[in-house]
Each structure stands twice: as C-alpha cells, then as structure tokens.
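To close the chapter, one final illustration. This time we ask the reader to focus less on the individual chains and more on the assembly as a whole: which components sit near each other, and how the overall shape emerges from the parts.
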Amino acid sequence: MSAFNAIGEERDIDRDEFTPAIEPQATWCPGCGDFGVLKALKQAMPEVGRTPEETLLVTGIGCSGKLSSYFKSYGFHSIHGRALPVARAAKLANPGLEVIAAGGDGDGYGIGGNHFMHTARENHDMTYIVFDNEIFGLTKGQTSPTSPKGHKSKTQPHGSAKSPIRPLSLGLTSGATYVARTAAVNPNQAKEILAEAMEHDGFAHVDFLTQCPTWNKDAKQYVPYIDVQDSDDYDFDIHDRREAAEMMYEAEDALYEGTVLTGRFYVDDERPSYQQEKQQSGDMPEEPLAERYFDEDYEWERSYDLLERHK
Amino acid sequence: MTDDELIWRIAGGSGDGIDSTSQNFAKALMRSGLNVFTHRHYPSRIRGGHTYVEIRASDKPVKSRGDNYNFLLALGDSFARNPQEEAYYGNEEIKPLSENLDELREGGVIVYDAGLLDTDEIENFDERVEENDWHVYDLDLRGLAKEHGREVMRNTAGVGATAALLDMDLQYIEELMEDAMSGDVLEANLQILEEAYESVKNDYDHTHDLRAPTGDHDEEQVLVSGSHGISYGALDEGCRFIAGYPMTPWTDVFTIMTQHLPDMGGISEQVEDEIAAASLAIGASHAGAKAMSGSSGGGFALMSEPLGLAEMTETPIVLVESMRAGGSTGMPTKPEQGDLEHVLYTSQGDSNRVVFAPGDPAECYEQTRKAFEIAYNYQIPSIVLYDQKLSGGHQTIPEAVFDEEPNPDLGSIVTEQDLEEAAHEAGRFKRYMYDAEGDREGVSPRSLPGQKGGNYLASGNEHNEVGHISEDPTNRVLQMERRMAKLDSIREELDETTDHQPVYGPEDADYGILSFGSTKGVVEEAVDILNEEGHSVKAMNVSDIMPFAKADVTEFLEGVDEALVVEMNATAQFRRHIQGQLGRFGEKLYSLLKYDGNPFEPSEVVSGFQTHLEGNADVSDYNVRIESATGD
Ligand SMILES: Cc1ncc(C[n+]2csc(CCOP(=O)(O)OP(=O)(O)O)c2C)c(N)n1
Ligand code: SF4
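The assembled structure is written out below.
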C-alpha cells in the first residue's frame, strides 16, 4: 500500500477545499493584487484535478510569500529567495507531488535570481509564480528589480539609474519551457494560465502582475491590458524561440510605456523535464524516493558491500 | 622515536601521480599485515608545487602521522622541465630532495631520481648525510621508466627500489597493479618494478638497517579516509539525497556519495551555490527523503540561513562541515579546527543544532549514523564537523566497523492511519503540537506532503500548531520551549546510549589532555609516550560538541589537577567552549595551539606538556603556542 494515498486520487475537486477553515488574518492591504493570485490559483486547481494534499506550495518571503498561509495545501513558507531550491528537491524526492513555488519580484529576480536561472535551466517540472508588483512590498516600498528606471523610493531618492530586469526574456533564455504573463486584474486569463502552467511538463514561469496600491501609487497600473492571444495585432509562433523572444522584448518595453501585454509567450512541449532526463540516464530512480522508506520489503544496500576497493 | 615502524615519504611535483602511487603502496603494506596511516601534504594548486604523501606503517596501532619519517623517495618534477608546460605553469623548480631533508630521521634512507635530481645542487649535502647517518641510493628512475614504458612510470621504479631496500615481497604490489591496470600499461609497469627491484638488489651495497616491519592482522582491515567513514555512515542510515557545491575539502564526501547514490537508487545534485545546496536538502527531507549537504568554511557560511530554516521548520537534515584553515578562503588544502564557533553559533536567534566531531574514520562512520538518527528522530539539523586532515587521510580500521545493519527509519513520522485520529485544527494537521505525546520531549509528530489528512504549513516564521504565522506571545513561548527542550532530551539519550567520550590512559591519572576531532590519535600517542616517561596522564577526545558531553567532561576534569586543551586554531575556541558549557574549570585549563596549516605531531604535544610542567609557558616552538590557564 502506498504511503501517499492522497497522490493521484481521482475525484471532483472544489476550489473551496483550498481555503483554510479558519482563514488566518489577512495581512494583505485592501486592493492588493496578491488576492488575485490566490483566487486564480484556487480556481485553477479543480481544472488541474489535483487535491490539496497532493499539492505542495513553497513560498519565499515577502507579501507574496504569505500565499501559502491563505491557500490550504501542504505548504512551505521558506526564506527570502529560496523557494525554488526547496521546491525542486521536494519534487525530486516525490515526483508525484504537484509542486508550485511562488514569491515576489525581489524574492525571485533579486535575491533568488541565481536559483531562478538554474531551476529554469534544469527544467524542473513545476510551476513558478512571481508576484510582479515592481516594488518591495513587505519591507515598505523599496525599489525592486522590476521597478522602472528613474523610479524614486526611500532607497533611491534621486531615481533609480538601473534598467529593470526583463523577467520573461530571462525565463526564456534560462531555459523555462513555459513562459507567460498574466495580471491580477485579469482573473479569467490568470486562472487559465495557471492551470496550463501546472499541466505543463517542465518549468513553467508565470510573471504575475500584481498591483500594490500601498507603495506603487497607481493602483491601476496594469489596466488596460491586452491579451496577445486575443489580439490580431500580435501574431507570433509561440513554439518558436526567436519569435517568442521578440514578442517578450516588446512586452517588456511596452509595460513601462503603459501598454500591458499579457498571455502566453513561449511553450515548448518537446523538451523532457529534468526529472525525466535524470531517470532516463539512470541518475535517479523511477519510483519516488519518498515511497521507499515505507516499503518494508525494500532491500537497502549496505556500505559493507562497497569495501572491496579498500582492501 | 623508534624504528620498528616505517614512515615512507614520497615527494615530488603535485599532479605527478604521487597520490595513486602512494595509495597502492599503502594498501600493499596493509595487505602484508600492517597498520597504516597516511598523511597528504599538497599545495593549493592543480599542477606543480611541492607535494608529498607520508605512509606510516607498523605492526602496532598507528593513530597519527608520527614524528618525522625514515624513508624518502624523492622523485623529480617532470612537468617543470617540459618546456611547453613550463611556458604555461611557470618554471618554479621543485626540490623534492632539499625540501624534505629537515624531517628525515637519523639513520634514514634516501632514494632519489638521479635522472632528474642532482645532489651537487644541495648545500652541504654530503656533510648532512654523514652527520645524520643517512643512507643514500641514487637511481635513474626516469631512465628506467623511459626504457621500458613512459616517463610517468618512474613512480613505479621508485616503489620497486623501495621494496628492494626494505626487503619487501613484491607480491602485494604486483597484485594491486594487476587490479588497477591491464594490457601494455600493466606489462610495462611490472617490468619497471622488477628491473628497479633487481638493480637495487644487485648493484648496491645495502648499508642501512631499516626493514619493512612485519605484521599480522587478526581481522580483515580496510584502508579508508574520514570522508569514506562519513559517506558510508550516511548510506547505511538510508541517506539517498545529497546536494552540494564543490569546496575543498568537503568535495571528498560529495564525490564519494555521488559515485554511489545513483546506483543505490538515490539522487545527487550539484547545484548553483551552498544556499541552494542546504535548501535542497531541506526540500528533499520535507518531502520524505533522508537528505544531507555540507561544505567547508565559506560555503558553510552561506548555509547559515537555511540552517536556521531547518531548525525552525523542524526539518531534519545532516550537514557536513570539513574545516580548512581560514579565515575567508584561508588555506584550502591545510587543516585547522578554526570553524568550531562558526558551526556552533551561526544562524540568527536562539537556534538549535546538534554537532558531532568524530576523531577517526571509524568514528566518522559511527557518528554520522548517530547524526542522522538524531536529526530524524528529533527533527533538528545535525552537523558532522571534521577537517581536511581527517577528510583525506587514510587509516586502516577493521572491516567489521561497517558490518552494521542499515537503518532507513525516517523517525517521528506519522502514518495515514495515525492521521485519521490525530489532532487537527480547522482542517489542518497539528504538526507543531505543544503537548505531543511520545517518548521524546519536544518532538511533535510530522506528516509528509502527499499523506491524506496531514496538510499543514511549514514556516520559518514563528508559527502556531498548524503552522500559521503567529506573533502571539503565549504561542511563541510554548513553541520556543518545545524546540529548546530537544537538546536536553538528546543529551539524555546520548548519555544513555553512546560512549563518544572514552577516556584514554590510566583512569586515575593526575593530568588530563582534552581535544576534539582529528587530534584524537596524536594525543593518544602522546599520552603513551608521556606515561612511558613516568608522567601520569590521561586523555579525552570530545565528540559530543552540542549538546555538550557535560557529565563526562566534568568527571574527567574533576579527577585531574590540570588539563591541556590541544586544538588546531589560534584563539582556543574549544577551550572557550568547555568553559562556557561547564561554567567552571577555567583555572585548570591551559592550551596548546597550532595553526600553521599542519596537523600536530605527537612530539609537539609531548613537548607542549613538558614545557608547561617546567613552568615555562612561553612559546616552545614558533609553530605551536602554549597559553596558560585562565580563571573563570
Ligand atoms: C536574507 C533576507 N534579506 C532581506 C529580507 C527582508 N525582506 C523581506 S521581504 C523583502 C522584499 C520583498 O519584496 P518582494 O520579493 O518583491 O515581495 P513583495 O513583498 O513585494 O510581495 C525583503 C527585502 C529577508 N527577509 N531576508
Ligand atoms: S504592501 Fe503592497 S504587496 Fe504588500 S500587501 Fe500591501 S498592497 Fe500588497
């Protein structure tokens, strides 16, 4: 008998199952875009057909990191910037889990930038949601890696001299096999994209635009938005890296000029996930590592059998 | 200093195959029935630079590198004379003869490669030879190797000459070569070995008395390093996940584990940095695997924050810290015990961790197993602290040390059946219960992602029983106290189940020597010498660093007039730890410190002790420092 019966359980799933029975006191500000991520995620879950107990949500630190408090599944609220390394090892140890990682733009593109690059490169089968509000929320409004050039804050009183990071392009060049951008102000698209990202076999990077009415004065910063898939003005092959890259470039520039382009930017269904690659080369067992500890018949190899070379 | 032992030193240029040659020779000595201890001295560069390996062999137990040595095989450095490589690496001349003479014992034997080295270039060579009664044999090792094979095979010629001079049987060496090579390479090597052997037998008068000792093990021995001990201990505890980033000397454990894990159904991950490495170990353990990571000094510094995360979320992990001389990147290939306080106190807040410091490869095995058992039973990070010396130094230990059953128990995990009845709040499992019933105080039940009825939130922020972030003062105190209680429970368990702090020497001795980690063997040999000289000395090597073995060390110190604390660092970190943990005995403790990058030799401990006895607390030798007692 499996030690993880919740994994693969087939039944109808209701979005309310992902709401804690007593909701912890919400620390998000009224009007915060983070509510939109939470809602979209809860709505996407029934479509993906994953139960709360086979889902592991790993978050970083920031307003965004609180997502795991308000979403009832197995959760891991880790440290600033480190959600991805925790998440990807959990996935390797038990590939049956639906693993989602989430954090802010400071968390994911700043302090955790190196992990982002490498997790994408390895193409772990997981979904990574970056709450992109162009600001450090929790620490009260400092400039973030996605803040526009010239952005003034207490830590950059004369205006930031740095150009913002290009999150979509960074995801693509690092090796993410699904890259999309959505916005809290666009709930239907957000739900669909999150569901797709979870169903994607590989590293799915979702740059999720979340308004921060408290520190980014213009709370309506992502309205109006354009869905690149719905608009006739944007015609590109989503499976073609070059075309995708160009489209991303345009979207990243446009954002700071007031045109919010959202949608799917790149999808590669061909490339095997890291776990598949590792299993194929014999670098990782087929069955979940975590199961083995419950299997009383499993023959554990002993170091004693390795001693020949030392004699 | 007796000569019923062989201390064979092979010296030459780094990257010239000295390592593999010496490994084989050490094994041959072991197979002939001797106890063996190896010591590797190498500079922090990939090619070039003077390097040597010392192999000490005796029919008696050998616990340290010993004092000085009695047989030198001096090879020339081939690459430094190759014009192409010279252009690339520089032309620093390696002097395997002159650089090693200071430590050669009286009556010692020298074999040198006359094809590459010239004794005329060495100042006063003949006078020194005469003065010290050294016996010198010149042999064109390079020429011999070239004639029958390739130049690099001159190591083999050197081993052949050694065997002839020491009256050794070639059988073991040949067998080992047959295991390691085949075809033409094997043929050439065998031929070079025999030619060298014969030519020394026939062409030279043997003027020296030194012979290879003979021994007879009564049980099967294996030649292993501390890193093997740690790796094999981890494997036998069911560790099947490792994540790491290379850093000398931690890389030893990382590579040994990686060599075996995939074939044993495990996973090894080389990742982007040490923060990631420790975080991956946490993620894998959280999801239900036995996991480890580790590093050395600077890399371990990066793990400070994940270490705290593991403690706060109560995720079991084992971290290995292999110390090298610091600070910063310090001396990558030299041992020191300077990271003790770093390992004890790194990470913010009142964080808890368990620290074991094994003293030899057998202890590395046993204590790594213990570290895993404690980590998983108590849901706390444990650290195995050792150093560069123990990491790569090989020692013969009984094979039986490893003949232990595997223990893949994840410890303190609930099953799905348990979860049906377990306490829940608002649909979430009370994973961080204050008043959990069980035989281990402070330990609450743990569920794994994917288990039915077990969902909760693991958080590095202070949290309530189901894991929600909480700043409620009552909750804070209850959770803090529960986590803190673990160390006391662990101490109790260790006191009942293990004997990590055995006393060496006569129980009723007047003087004590305290050490931790890899200085164990040197101290034990020094104790033997001191007692033979008529002193009354006993020693204790402390392995239970945190929670500290208070009862054992107190009893030890109460029984002695004074104690010398021997450690390889400049600031007496271990002595401070003892004083801090026990809150007394300051006036009894004085220090012997060494921090020049080389491990202690027994004679240094002996003279440190004597210097103090004679009331002379000044520096006895510029390489070691004696520090007098301080009152509390
Ligand atoms: C190592 C470390 N450095 C700094 C902090 C303080 N800190 C907490 S959240 C945060 C930034 C949050 O910004 P972002 O990631 O964009 O998330 P948001 O709050 O906007 O959702 C910082 C700097 C920390 N917790 N840990
Ligand atoms: S500070 Fe900004 S990001 Fe944080 S909760 Fe408030 S609105 Fe949201």
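The mean pLDDT of chain A is 96. Residues 7 and 96 of chain A are 6 Å apart (CA to CA). With these observations in hand, you are ready for the problems at the end of the chapter.
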